[in-house]
Amino acid sequence: MKRLHNLLPALALAWCLATPVAAQEATKSAPGDDRPVRVALTTNALPYALLAPNLGVEVFVGSRISLSVDGVYGWWGYPDGNTIVENWSIGGEARYWLNNDGRFLGHHLGLGVRSGQFDVAWNDPGRRGQFTLAGVNYGHTWVLRRRWTVDAGLGVGYVRAKYDTYQWHADTGCYERLARGRVKNTFGLTDLHVSISYRF
Fold first, then answer.
1. What is the C-alpha separation between 166 and 179, in angstroms, rounded?
2. Domain boundaries of the chain, sorted by first residue
């Protein structure tokens, strides 16, 4: 929660910077819509497959830059104590849009970061810990209808996870810690999204 409070002033500053420009240069989300775009609410459809709702805010600055922040939380499990999937994370991205028409559509490149915690057990020793990642992202945005858009993209970069392993003993109803403070550093997929947005 403390990280979210640290991000709020940055979002407020970005909102102030994203002032509407002159009518001939106004940011438009779709042809025929002359209202300038300043902010969008977004949600990534993919985490819902793991029962992990999420919500994000994207702020548009100038004609080529946007800044976004989002949060996700998911939890589900079975009474056997050996099948648990729980995670939460907060992430952000700075995007550079390749089209300079002020509509924020088409191809974009970005730098993304994310940090959070996880607890996963799936008929194997469980893993519980925290992770941090940073990567380079690519995506493409299309108009669905007027102010509604869909954005698909992926990212690659560096992932660091620190975690404990544990095992559930059904006979005693207790968890046993197997290892503590394991660290894994890897290069791989850091972002995968198909997001729906509404632009204001």
1. 7
2. 2-17+45-199
d(CA 80, CA 75): 15
pLDDT tens profile 32-67:
566 778 999 999 999 999 899 999 999 999 999 999
The pLDDT value given to residue 52: 96
Angstrom CA distances, 91 to 61, 69, 135, 154, 197, stand at: 19, 6, 11, 14, 17
Phi then psi dihedrals of residue 25, to 5 deg: -115, 10
At residue 23, does pLDDT exceed 50?
Answer: no
Cβ–Cβ contacts within 10 Å for residue 66, how many? 23
Structure tokens, 146? 């007027």
* Residue 41 token pair: 């609410």
- DSSP result, 8-31: HHHHHHHHHH-----GGG---SST
Q: Which residue has the higher pLDDT, 65 or 121?
A: 65
Both structure tokens of 86: 């729980």
CA 46 to chain centroid, in Å, comes to 11
What rounded mean pLDDT belongs to the chain?
Answer: 85
